[in-house]
Amino acid sequence: MSLSAIGQELSENDVPVAVRNSFYELYPNMFVYEWELEKKENVYEAEFMNKGIEMEAIFRPDGSYIGTEIDIKLEDMPPDVKKAFSHSEYAKWKLEDTEEFKKKEGEKLYIIEVEKKKKKVKLYYSKDGKLVNTK
């Protein structure tokens, strides 16, 4: 899980205090098993498990919260997202990862990562199945 593919793993001590404080305010008593700095996006990611579900909280260097990615299965995505993806040019590509992204503001995006001949693409869909971004 991540907004971008170029990440540098960090020890907790190498993560800005503002980022760590923001994480533990949002998710008290959670253990972060991996901190990463995503250089391309200039964000910090805290990977953790919550009730058996892999999650990743994302923060700006000043500690401001961007949102949380949650691993989900393709079949658990909204029907309009599944339909839009199945009719897209990427439907025949190899499925790599699927996530729900909960933005700070409460809006949700659904991310489908696919791969074909070593080319990876992330598709960002709104709940109604509209493709809002591709990376």
TrEMBL record:
Gene3D superfamilies associated with the record: 3.10.450.360
SUPFAM superfamilies from the UniProt entry: BT0923-like
Protein name according to UniProt: Putative beta-lactamase-inhibitor-like PepSY-like domain-containing protein
Chain ranges of the Putative beta-lactamase-inhibitor-like PepSY-like domain: 43-132
InterPro entries attached to this UniProt entry: PepSY-like
Organism: Sporocytophaga myxococcoides
Top-level division of the source organism's lineage: Bacteria
